[in-house]
Specification:
alpha/beta; Rossmann fold; nine-stranded mixed sheet
């Protein structure tokens, strides 16, 4: 297990190398001082039942549509757990599509959700999509919490304290992936990169780590969302003959990967990322990417007790589980913050998010909504740890602790965790 510890501060983190695959990231959190409540014989928790309305902009269509079902299942399961607890708050979720950056679907969806007076919006999955709507959301005084945005650019974005995410910055995934490729023996690296905030941010972190480990990036080919031909990029990458190629794409991998292998590049020397680590058993011929590896933030869902089974009860057709836990935790954290604030106003919810995550307040540990809610109702402070991990928000709305899993493709083009 490789442990990454980052120092406090708004703009920088100090990262160490991977030792054995899993990267657990820790950071000192900013402790926010608050006024002590006035003495009262009544419990400090809220006294009126709260009705919280949450919207989602998760990918039902577009280049990340394969992530939509597990993310929406995570949201639905959290809503179910909160409402069944019957502890001072009920939640209604309104599901809308985010599309991708080739459409204005997200803007239309956000406009609709804001007209229905949601207090928070979960999504988008794509960093590029979130950047198209973040000003619209936070400008309305509504919380935005993404379960999958990983662009480092969100850390210092002027969001009025209303943007949060349960997925870690790609400074971390890039660190893990760069060290993995170097430790696998590659001396040279090529990269195919989606030209948006997600792709270029991850590529920069990956390149910095790989070069710090003594490697050389010999080719970096960009493409834009919506492109359908990748002949020029494939030619340039294969001509450079790198020891490894990192494919930093969304579902464009379905086109690019067979093209690279068809041009003579070994499928086993490809590296995938969270945006395209998917089951390709129905898309590629058997063995096409056998031995290829990839990274994905999050704990191993198979180790989370009955969480995967409970997701399948919500959606029996699930075949992907990426970012389901992060989506679940986003909803639970929003609900706990509302309960702690005694309010469903977006600004009030945001004021309690760092506290309920354990980033401030020295709260009591709890791992499910019901136990956390009871602590709040009894006048206490909580530190929620969920199926995606400890979370522990810093002052920028970033999780300060995260796990990056390493996966390897099997002969049938499915993938398995190897750490």
């Amino acid at each position: 297990m490789g442990v990454f510890t980052s120092g406090s501060g708004r703009r920088s983190r100090s990262l160490s190398s991977v030792l054995g695959g899993i990267a657990v990231v820790g950071a000192s959190a900013l402790v926010l001082a608050g006024c002590a409540p006035a003495e009262s014989e009544e419990p400090a928790g809220p006294t009126e039942e709260l009705s919280l309305k949450i919207g989602t902009i998760l990918p039902q269509s577009g280049a990340l549509a394969f992530l939509g079902p597990p993310e929406e299942a995570g949201v639905a399961l959290a809503v179910q757990d909160i409402n069944e607890a019957d502890l001072g708050i009920t939640v209604e979720a309104i599901y809308r599509d985010s599309g991708d950056t080739t459409t204005d679907t997200a803007t239309v969806s956000v406009t609709d959700l804001l007209s229905q007076n949601v207090s928070a919006i979960v999504g988008a999955a794509s960093s590029g999509v979130s950047f198209t709507v973040i000003d619209q959301i936070v400008g309305a005084g509504v919380v935005q919490m993404s379960p999958a945005n990983t662009s480092p650019n969100f850390t210092t974005y002027d969001d009025n304290g209303l943007y949060w995410r349960t997925a870690p910055s790609d400074l971390l995934q890039g660190e893990v992936l760069g060290n993995l490729i170097a430790e696998d023996g590659a001396a040279t690296l090529g990269m195919l990169v989606l030209n948006d905030a997600y792709g270029t941010g991850l590529a920069a972190a990956l390149a910095a780590t790989f070069e710090a480990a003594g490697g050389e990036v010999v080719a970096e080919e960009l493409f834009n969302e919506g492109d359908t031909s990748f002949d020029a990029q494939v030619s340039a990458l294969t001509a450079a003959a790198p020891d490894a190629i990192a494919v930093i794409t969304f579902d464009q991998a379905k086109i690019v990967v067979p093209a690279l292998v068809g041009a003579g590049y070994p499928g086993s020397q490809l590296y995938f990322v969270d945006g395209n680590l998917a089951d390709y058993s129905a898309d590629f011929e058997a063995g096409l990417v056998e031995g290829a590896k990839g990274t994905l933030p999050g704990l191993d869902i198979a180790t989370l007790g009955n969480f995967q089974d409970r997701l399948l009860e919500v959606d029996p057709n699930l075949t992907e589980f990426s970012y389901a836990a992060e989506s679940y935790d986003a909803v639970v954290l929003i609900a706990l913050a509302a309960l702690a604030a005694g309010s469903t106003e977006g600004v009030d919810i945001a004021s309690k998010l760092q506290e309920v995550s354990g980033g401030s307040g020295d709260g009591e540990k709890c791992t499910d909504f019901a136990s956390c809610a009871q602590i709040i109702l009894d006048g206490g402070v909580v530190d929620y740890d969920g199926p995606s991990g400890p979370i522990t928000f810093d002052e920028n709305g970033d999780p300060t602790e995260a796990t990056i899993g390493i996966f390897q493709y099997n002969a049938d083009n499915t993938f398995s965790r190897i750490n």
